[in-house]
Structure formats: structure tokens, C-alpha cells
Amino acid sequence: MPPPPASLAYGMQLPIQSQSSLYAEPWEADATPDDLVEIARAADRAGFAYLACCDHVAIPRRLAAAMGTTWYDPVATLSYIAAATERVLLMSHVAVVGLRHPLLTAKQYATLDHLSGGRLILGVGAGHVPEEFEALGVDFARRGAVLDEAIDALRAALGPDEYPEHHGKLHDFGGLGQRPRPAQDRVPLWVGGSSPAAVRRAATRADGWLPQGDPRDKLPAQIARLRRLRRGRRGSRSRSRRWRSPRPCTSASRAGPSAVARWPARRTPSPSRCARTARWASIRSRCASAAAAAPNSSIRWRRSRPAWPRTSVTDHLSD
Questions:
Q1: Which of 1, 135, 186, 310 has the most crowded Cβ, counting Cβ within 10 A?
Q2: Is 95 within the bounds of a domain?
Q3: Which residue has the higher pLDDT, 4 or 14?
Q4: CATH code: domain of residue 41
């Protein structure tokens, strides 16, 4: 269930499931799965928007003193939490999706979204531990390009088609069916990271942004840059897109303040934007005619589906 329109929403990364010495509290070392469930249920009752879980496959010895080696698997953990909660959204914060084949990732997260009744937010990131990539046979130096294609492949694999297709440089698949499909028509995909490349990726390829370690006073400039990139993307695609592109969602990391976001009411397409030229007016007319002829077609879902609030921005940083 998405947060209500035009309200503040709070989310948090769960304790216990990741125990880096940079932020873990002493009590977490002896915490049990029952403690994790109790925290999740309390957050669910209190109206938290989402609960999040990290992703690391293995931590090298050289980083263990700082990062620790306790990192729960996000799919297993979020599935466990889903069974114990009712409404809170479930986020990977963040899944290093480049470490796995997109069909495998899609299978796991589509099942999670299906079982939880459409509560998934798929947060993804490039990763930062070279040894993990080496052990799993992935080129760490090209992790940015790997993530870019993984996002495109996951958009296809988590879409409505039972037989998704993607044909890229690193992954090529088609004619392979996967069920269950996600409960959501479009699984929200957020990008984590605060490097220039990560912010650009969030603006141009994702539905939301997950800052990583930004001081509060640096976030307004980051969000302003993200919006500029988003506007530039709209301009470059204005001749091929009918609807206005959404502004990004943003969140705060566990190490920083609790996530605070504004969830405005669903936006509707601007008629003036669609009718600036005779060509756009013609396209709009044809789309409306096609939608009337096929009410369940994809032409109408942007207006008729219960919309995930993809246009939210961090309220206390947007002034």
C-alpha cells in the first residue's frame, strides 16, 4: 500500500540485518529473528512507509573490522518481514544487482512482490567491494556499465510480460517464461549512491534516489543537480514521449537521519504539453481512440492504475 497523497512518510533501514561497526548498536550482536520481527511489526503499526535491507554476498578479511561479516540476504529477509507485516513497503537498500544474472534477480524479487501483495521497492547500486566481484566472476572496473544494463534488463524482466526479452551487450534473453509475475504493474526501481555517476543514473534511469552518506547540508545541491538532469532527460525525449517524466523519489540512508519524503497527489498529463503542435494533438487523439477501443490496454494504465508516488521529493530539502 503506497503512502497517502500529500503526506510525510518515514522509512528506515532495519537494524540487526547488517552490522557494520560504523553504525551498529551493541545490542544488535545478540539480537534474534524474533527481535527483527518485533521491530518490523512496530514500524508497520506506527505507519512507517518502508523497511529496508542491505546486500553483500561476502566481506573480505581486510574490510571485516569496519564492515563486519553479518549481512542478511535481502530477498530472504524481506520475505520473512513480509509475512509478519501488513502494509509497510519492502526495500532493498541496495541490491548489488550486477553480481547476479538479471533473470535470477527478477525471479527472486518478482516472487517477493507477488507474495507481499505488491510491496516491493527495488533499490539497486553498483557495489564497492572488489573481492565480491572477483569471487563471483564480475568485472569490478566495469560495474557502472554492468549496473546500467542490469537496470534495463530488470525493467523488462519485472514487467508484465510472462516471456520478457532483453538484448544487450552483457545479457541476452527471450522466450523464457517466468511466473509468478510481480503484483505491481511497474516495480519502483530506485538507485543508490551519491557519486556523480550514481546521481546521473538515478535521474535518467530510475524512479527514485537513495543518497549514500551525504551530509544533510549537501543534499539540496545534490537534489538540484538531479532535477536538472531529469529536466534535461525530459527535453531530450520530448519528441518521443507523451507524458511528463516523473521527478525522482529520494530517501535518507540508515547512517543519516530518518527518511522523510513528500508524497504528492498523482499527477495527470498536461493537455497543453500534449497539444503544443498538431503532431502531438494527432498522437493524443489516436491514443485516446485506442484506449476507448481497448480499455485494458497499456495506453491507459498510466492514468488508471493505483499509482506508486514516483513524483515525490524530500520535503525538508526541497525549499
A1: 310
A2: yes
A3: 14
A4: 3.20.20.30
* Residues paired with 53 in a beta bridge: 92
Which residues are 51's β-sheet partners?
Answer: 12, 90
Q: pLDDT tens digits for 230-245? A: 998 776 665 444 433 3
- Give 265-282 pLDDT, tens digit per residue: 334 444 433 333 343 344
Which residues constitute the domain of residue 253?
A: 7-271+309-317
Q: Which helix (H) or strand (E) holds 84?
A: helix 74-84
pLDDT in tens, 6-37: 567 889 999 999 999 999 999 999 999 999 99
Element (H, E) at 77: helix 74-84
Domain annotation covers residue 303: no
Measured CA to CA in angstroms, residue 86 lies from 83, 112, 259 at distances of 8, 14, 20
**Dihedral (C-alpha) 282, 283, 285, 286: value to the nearest 10 degrees?**
120
User: Which are the contacts of 304, defined by CB distance < 8 A and separation ≥ 6?
Assistant: none
How many independent structural domains does the chain possess? 1
3-state secondary structure of 163: coil
| Amino acid letter for position 65 | A
Mean pLDDT, range 288-309, rounded to an integer: 37
**Is-above-0.85 flag for pTM?**
no
- Cα 185 from chain centroid? 14
Residues with Cβ within 8 Å of 23's Cβ and at least 6 positions away in sequence, in order, are 254, 255
Helix axes 143-157, 196-205, angle to 10 degrees: 20
